[in-house]
Design a protein that fits this description.
6-stranded antiparallel beta sheet, 5-stranded antiparallel beta sheet, 11 strands
Length: 478
């Protein structure tokens, strides 16, 4: 019995110790929870409330004074900062937060430790979207002030990643519409005042900004059509004025470009036909009597402008060709000329004098070689050709020796020849400084290639004066 009592007491004491130990453990646990709440939960909650309510200055001070004492609380505070930045950044992307709100939270976040990498990762996207929103805001401002081009440019430079991009495109179209309406109004006022150049310049300038604007393109065509009609009517009025003054030449000069510009305009064609008939009759009535009198140069002066204005008139063209055939084509100015072989120099001039004192116009000179060449040469020769293509009938000219020619070396003489298609037409041998001028008139009908050759001792200067070709030749001509 006694032993049983001892065991029960021992058990009771053990239970008491266990209860005491459990109480101590519970007390310690509660104390730890209290400390965790006081030092972690409550500070983090306070920081969260301050930061998410945008009390950024107070939140940072609280972070410095309380959260940084423990690494875990500092880390939790930085996580709160990141979450808030991401929340506002998302709201900004959705256009439910403005630029100032985003800027404030970014500026506050930059003050915290270990935030550089996080903020750097967001920076490129933030920069692109901020620029886009800035363009959008600027565009709205320009739109409100009716600064259409600036507004359109701002909206057109928005980022496609911006949720306001679609709205920006609509606003850009509104700006373009406002601009085109302004230009159309101003251009129409200029057009109504007959300032077609100003109206077209204004519209063209607008099209450089909006090349696909159909309203502007259509109105430009309207201006051009009105301008053409104005020019046509103005030109026709000037034609009528010229006709009233019996100035057919002026009327034809005005009608020529009109006819080319409006080839199917019946009014212009009828007036042109009537004027051309009268003008051609007037020109031919003046030119033909002069032609019969042999006043060929006067005839050409009359026919030349008419030939340009009435290029299709066969009568004027035929009379022009016949008249020009009676006038000389000077050999010194002949276009189809080729020097085949010429030792010495070939020159052309207005006048020259021969050894007998005779003066010539339209001169060709064939001079001796240079002084250096004369030391090694005793003889010189030359040949040149003219392509006539069978278009001429008579060659006239005078061969003489130019004054100032020195005595021929070694007492040699010169020879001058003219060939028509290699057939000798003229030969003048034994030429010296004492040779008298020789005039010639040669038949070159159907000659294709005319050749002139000469040979002489050095020191001689040939003078070919007033050499010319005629297409039409009669013995009465000089």
């Amino acid at each position: 019995m006694k032993e049983e009592l001892v065991d029960q007491e021992t058990v009771a004491n053990g239970k008491k110790r266990l209860l005491t130990l459990f109480g101590i453990l519970i007390t310690l646990l509660l104390l730890g929870l209290l400390l965790y709440y006081v030092n972690v939960v409550r500070p983090v909650t306070q920081f969260h409330d301050l930061y998410t309510q945008a009390h950024y200055t107070e939140a940072y001070s609280f972070y410095e004074d309380h959260l940084k004492r423990f690494g875990i609380t500092a880390q939790k505070g930085e996580e709160i900062v990141k979450e808030e930045v991401l929340r506002i950044w998302t709201a900004y992307q959705n256009a439910s937060a403005d630029q100032d709100t985003l800027d404030q939270v970014l500026a506050s976040a930059a003050r915290y430790e270990n935030m550089n990498a996080f903020l750097s990762g967001l920076e490129p996207d933030i920069q692109v979207l901020s620029e886009s929103r800035s363009r959008y805001t600027s565009g709205l401002s320009h739109l409100e002030q009716e600064e259409w081009l600036s507004a359109a440019e701002d909206f057109s430079r928005m980022s496609e990643t911006d949720c306001l991009y679609k709205e920006g495109k609509e606003q850009a179209l509104a700006a373009q519409k406002g601009y085109s309406s302004l230009i159309l109004s101003e251009s129409e006022a200029l057009m109504n005042a007959a300032d077609y150049d100003g109206a077209m310049a204004l519209t063209d300038e607008a099209l450089t900004h909006f090349p696909d604007n159909e309203e502007l393109k259509a109105f430009r065509e309207k201006i051009y059509t009105a301008y053409q009609e104005h020019e046509k009517q103005d030109s026709l009025a000037r034609v009528q004025k010229a006709l009233d003054q019996q100035n057919l030449t002026e009327a034809m000069r005005i009608l020529a470009p009109l006819k080319e510009k409006y080839p199917e305009d019946t009014q212009i064609l009828e007036i042109s036909a009537s004027c051309e008939e009268a003008y051609a009759g007037q020109i031919l009535s003046k030119a033909r009597p002069l032609f019969e009198q042999g006043a060929y140069e006067e005839v050409l002066q009359i026919l030349a402008p008419a030939r340009e204005l009435l290029s299709s008139n066969t009568e004027i063209q035929a009379l022009y060709d016949e008249t020009s055939g009676h006038l000389p084509a000077w050999l010194c100015d002949f276009p189809n000329y080729e020097n085949v072989t010429l030792r010495g120099t070939r020159k052309k001039g207005e006048t020259a004098v021969d050894t007998f004192g005779n003066t010539y116009g339209h001169v060709l000179l064939y001079a001796e070689p240079s002084a250096l060449s004369m030391q090694t040469m005793t003889y010189t020769q030359g040949r040149e050709t003219y392509t006539l293509s069978g278009a001429y009938t008579r060659l006239l000219g005078t061969l003489a020796v130019k004054e100032g020619s020195r005595g021929i070396k070694n007492d040699q003489t010169g020879t001058f020849r003219i060939y028509g298609d290699e057939q000798l037409l003229l030969e003048i041998p034994g030429i010296s400084e004492n040779t008298e001028p020789v005039s010639f008139s040669l038949d070159v009908t159907d000659v294709d290639l005319l050749s002139i050759t000469f040979e002489s001792g050095t020191g001689l200067k040939y003078l070919l004066g007033d050499a010319c070709l005629y297409k039409t030749w009669t013995p009465s001509e000089p």
